[in-house]
Specification:
The structure is a homodimer of 128-residue chains. In chain A, 14% of the residues lie in helices and 37% in strands. Chain A has 128 residues and is mostly beta strands. Chain A has a four-stranded mixed sheet, with helices on one face. In chain A, strands 3-4 form a two-stranded antiparallel sheet. In chain A, β3 and β4 form a beta hairpin. The interface between A and B is large, with 37 and 37 residues.
Chain lengths: 128, 128
């Protein structure tokens, strides 16, 4: 992995970079996760988002259990070269493990987090 | 700052939370930064984005030098309660210190980061 484009990225001390996943047509931001060099290289190679799971300390091929893969249409880098924005096509229209379109399903209203997105599919049925 | 909504957030060990700023109407993701409890509380209180600058280790009232403030229209929280998404109205239409609409102005094409957004205003004129 000596590619220049990979080396241009300012990785954290842990060798990670934060990644924002955005549904390409609706513009909905659906997820935030992390990648390491290997997962980003794999994402580019396969055309589907592969993250680095910090909790499980392993590669996380998004959708490996749920089937909700994220097809990558564009990969964008910010001015400091330390954040990545993915334009994706979300398979199944569900990015969140709660069965919602987006992980950002709560909104602050009058000092309280209110749920603003419906559950599209029962998680028990997604992960069965 | 004993508000429950603040306590619901899973702060990092450093007391921070990553924040994605998205232009509310176009859907363009314009920036990624961090907030601590104080800056998030101030953001809610003032209605304008206040970040925590990790490099300068101080509150960063976005637009304090450039005038490019971010009016907050909505604050969303993700499923793990550890990432915030701001729906904003970007003053001046420029979020990036390079004078571009978005900090994500580079796109990966054929193994190279290519610039995909024009400079709308010379940074020398923004920060003079």
């Amino acid at each position: 992995m000596s590619q220049e484009w990979l080396q241009a990225i300012q990785w954290t001390e842990d060798g990670l970079v934060p990644v924002i996943a955005q549904q390409h047509d609706s513009g909905r931001v659906v997820m935030f996760a992390w990648m390491n060099r290997e997962s980003l290289a794999l994402s580019v190679e396969t055309g589907y988002a592969v993250y680095w799971s910090r909790s499980r300390q392993r590669l996380w091929r998004k959708g490996e259990e749920s089937g909700h893969q994220q097809k990558i249409l564009d990969i964008q880098l910010d001015c400091d070269a330390d954040v990545i924005l993915l334009k994706i096509e979300q398979q199944g229209g569900i990015a969140c493990h709660t069965g919602r379109q987006s992980c950002f399903y709560r909104s602050l209203h009058k000092g309280e987090w209110q749920t603003i997105e419906p559950i599209l599919k029962d998680p028990a049925k997604i992960y069965s």
